[in-house]
Amino acid sequence: DNIEWFENDMSRSTLTEINIRKGNLRGLHDFHLVFNYPISVIAGKNGSGKSTVLALAACAFHNNRKGFHLPERNTTYYTYSDFFLQTSEEVPPEGIEILYRFRCNNWKKTKSNPTGTGNKYQKREKKKGGKWTNYSNRVHRNVVFLGIQRIVPHSEKSVSKSYRTYFKVSDADGWEGDVRNVVGRILGASYDTYRVKTYSKYRLPLVESKGNIYSGFNMGAGENALFEIFTTIFASPPGTMLVIDEIELGLHEKAQKKLILELKKICKERKVQ
Questions:
Q1: Which residue, 134, 133, 107, is CA-closest to 120?
Q2: Residue 173: how many CB atoms within 10 A of its CB?
Q3: How far apart are CA 85 and CA 168, in angstroms?
Q4: Is 270 in contact with 238 (CB distance < 8 Å)?
Q5: SS3 content of the chain, % helix, strand, coil (to 5)
Q6: Is 209 helix (H, G, I), strand (E, B) or coil?
Q7: Each residue of 200-254: pLDDT tens digit?
Q8: What is the pLDDT of residues 38-69, one digit of tens each?
Q9: pLDDT at 267
Q10: Residue 38 · residue 57 · CB < 8 Å
Q11: How far is CA 170 from the centre of its chain?
């Protein structure tokens, strides 16, 4: 079912290829990756370039100011400078040429393509001594990158501890029940309620289970991470692309398998990648 919509839906601005044609980016060169399914898992040895691939995927798209973004971010899109940073001793990447390919229905209409629909390429380039090009011409899409900071327990986050008395329960958005049910199925837990407490750009999960109320301060790392992942998925618009670093962190292998099953359902329902 997922293959059927993924290969034929031109309205989601689907990322279908990443191709490094020139240069060397953190050890990746002459690199070509095709996405044939809405869930893609990048696996490999340490230093093989997994995180680089995720960063490249997140930087494939642009967005407008009203697009979706995580509370802690100021912009609705990602740039290479979000991921590829250097100290004064390091040489920045240069001489790079990347081809992205998108299945999209919003290309410029031409005589040869009067509908503006197709699976077409865009190029990103960083010449010697120059900057990355064509940011504003990127295909538009809501993209969310979830890094491994989601695994750090709130009891170990200095910001969370400092503001713990300031967090207030937010108004319900309607998707809290969906998040509660999905996380419950993955962990084999029964949650009566799930709410989000917020302060400034920070948020804290709060659940009730069998008469006990507890927050992210008293959750396991995997439990807290799942609430963060699925809160983000259901809070973001349908068609969003979600990039998750080290998705298995904090999860037992049984929970990992159930997580993938839930993601398959969500891909079909919300048309996410």
A1: 107
A2: 11
A3: 35
A4: yes
A5: 30, 25, 50
A6: strand
A7: 999 999 999 999 999 999 999 999 999 999 999 999 999 999 999 999 999 999 9
A8: 999 999 999 899 999 999 999 999 999 999 99
A9: 97
A10: no
A11: 23
